[in-house]
Amino acid sequence: MPTSTDGSTGVGEDHTRRRLGLVRDAHVAVDRVACTGHGLCAQLLAGVTLDEWGYPIIGDDRVVGEDGRDLADTAVRLCPARALYLR
Ligand code: SF4
Predict the structure, then answer these.
(1) Which residues pair with residue 86 across a beta bridge?
(2) Element spanning 85, H or E
(3) How far is the C-alpha of 31 from the C-alpha of 11, rounded, in Å?
(4) Is any ligand 1 atom within 6 A of the Cβ of residue 44?
(5) Residue 1's pLDDT is what?
(6) Closest ligand 1 atom to the C-alpha of 48?
(7) Which atom of ligand 1 is nearest to the CA of 81?
(8) pLDDT, tens digit, for every residue of 8-35?
(9) Confidence (pTM)
(10) Is the CB of residue 45 less than 8 Å from the CB of residue 4?
């Protein structure tokens, strides 16, 4: 299997590390088909506002630091439509 200069094997390994919670940097994203516009994400995350119908607009998707990660994890867990995720 080919490896990069840092010894990683590429996208698959990075995806696995993210799923295992070993990568702390992340970006917030919304599944726009699943989102039902409850707006909870905008109450928890500073980078998210709501449009006139109550659907999220993600202005800054970066999750910064341990506190940011904890808050983002909470928002993902509490999203009633399971539409919020980290990538
Ligand atoms: S909390 Fe979930 S369902 Fe509600 S607006 Fe945000 S992404 Fe959509």
Answers:
(1) 28
(2) strand 84-86
(3) 21
(4) no
(5) 43
(6) 6
(7) 3
(8) 455 566 667 666 766 667 899 999 999 9
(9) 0.73
(10) no
